[in-house]
Amino acid sequence: MQSQDVAQRHAPASTAPVGFEQAEAALVEHYPRLVRIAYLVLPPGLGRSRRVLTAHALAQRALPRGRKQPSVLPAQASGREGDPGYVCLRERVLRAALEAGRPRKGLLRLAQLPAPLPQVWGLRLFPRSGGADELALDQRLSALSGPARAAYVLRGLENLPDAGVHAILAAAGVDDPGGALAAANGVPAQPALLSSPEFDPCSLQARPTDLVRRRQHTKAALAAAAALAVCGALVALPGGGWGSDGAAAPVYAGNPAAEAALDPGRLTRVSPTAWRSAARTDFSVWPARGPLTGDRALLRRALAVWARPGETVRVSATPGTQTGGPAGPPQLLYAGVVDNVRLVVLYDGLRIARYAEPKDGTQGAALDFARVDGASGAEASALVLGRSDGNVRYLTAPWVRKAAARDLMKPDAAAAPLARTGDGITASLASPALRAGNCTSWTVLQLTDAAGTQLSTDLGELVPAHLTAGRPGATGEASGAQGLRSWAPFACSLSAERSSGIRSVNAWAYAEQPLPDGSGAADWVCTRAETWRGDGTAATAQFHPPGAAAGTAVAKGTDVPACGTREPQVLAGVLWKSGAGHWYLLAAGSKETASVRATGGVTASAKGPLLAARAGQGARADLEGTLTDGRSVSGLR
């Protein structure tokens, strides 16, 4: 009786009328899952790229064709299984995928051709490669028949009981559902792997198709080549040619707004004194500086390459930064020559774009982008103009009064004054972003303006990262004595944040812990790197025992609120070896931590924010803490 109830509950929706609107809503809501089911059931012989396109086609064609359908019967269960529209679409997808795996003869082979939509020309699309476990499962599924793969997927991915799987397979036209279930039993159940990116046809990688074969089909492209030649001749006429645009690609269209954005005469140029009366000190009040601000040919090339970079242009962007052309005429910040390179720096309100070309020509031009939306004050006080021979040059804001170089690892040493030109370009200083080998120093840029002194560091991007220190929500500049001492042992950890789109990094000394062998007290510091795009933030707990030259990163969390303004709490631990050779688990939380407990390889607890317990070498423990307001906090891993 129980198996009959289960079969009825998972019976296919084709036995009950399904409205077109409900089926359409189910397709939109569950599209990735339906495509995954089709991809897993389709025969492996199709190849990964063709399976991807066929799976999408089967899911899209599963929608009932007629819009006039009887009303839907009330659902008897919850979730996907309680949605008749989803159950109906799943049955249709399964039936079509199983049908694609059956051999055909003669004209019936046409039914096995790829579905009309979607199609991608010149590219092969396939899911991301997984690990060894995903590869092994894929090989085992390849050895199964189509019905057996369908049974395995329904049981593992859909979490259906055997009675429900049997009913769905029978409705999909499988002759021997019981045999399919028995064959599926030969593959170990691994439901987590079925949900992995290896089997996700909606998260794809792209590679070119057979380039040699494509080149052999030149005759089919003669008409297109002739049309392109005609268009090229028209574009090359006076007033519309691309010869003056250097490394830019050919013009795509004569859009008036796009043409206005490419006109050097319409560039925004800010008065040199605008920043003095502005409400905000940001990039919008930087004046146009440099000896080449009147070079219309250079400015035109920079704008044209920004809008349509040619194949020879090297384009780079910080994570989360769009590389499309400007929506309107951007603001000119700098145009000049630095280290035998002609540079143009532009700003469109959200991004900084730096165009660079060799002084002796335009071959090898480069275009770099950085996201700077919301930048103000210290975050808008300097830009990287260029790097060479391990050094970096900055263009400083007009409100900067003094510039200096400081070794962040030597908090007691004085900063070295840094000369600047009349345009605000600094002399070269060592760039930690370019250094290889052991980290023995970390040179940062120190700028002083009317608001005070700030520190910034080069992390391989156009905008240096602003360094701060202090408790989240009450941070201050890292240039103070306390901030310098907090950063000194952990300066080299900044190398982990290179080229990550970092906006600012804060160091917070959240705990001091006496060591159990009486050799002194260790410092716990949490460094948090904030990005321009919002996600990708990194909170790192670092441990610095007495006598050590540098701290050690012991735990790190990405996209977590720990050490931030929203959640100014942190808990972390480390396995530490005393001078006598004994191993201890040391853990420390912020001052709001009322108790700490360890489970797993080490079992211990302590009142207050600190915990020290004997442990074995290589032991692993999970940390949990309770805050003074009763909330719990987990240890960073």
Spell out the key features of this protein.
flat; alpha+beta; ten-stranded mixed beta sheet; five-stranded mixed beta sheet; 24% helix; single chain; 637 residues; 15 helices; 27 strands
Description:
The protein is an alpha+beta fold and 637 residues long. 24% of the residues lie in helices and 26% in strands. It contains 15 helices and 27 strands. The strands form six sheets. Strands 10, 11, 13, 14, 15, 16, 17, 18, 19 and 20 form a ten-stranded mixed sheet that branches. A five-stranded mixed sheet has the order 3-7-6-5-4, with helices on one face. It has a four-stranded antiparallel sheet with strand order 24-23-26-27, with no helix packed on it. Helix 1 crosses helix 7 (162-171), helix 6 (146-156) packs across helix 7 (162-171) and helix 6 (146-156) packs across helix 8.
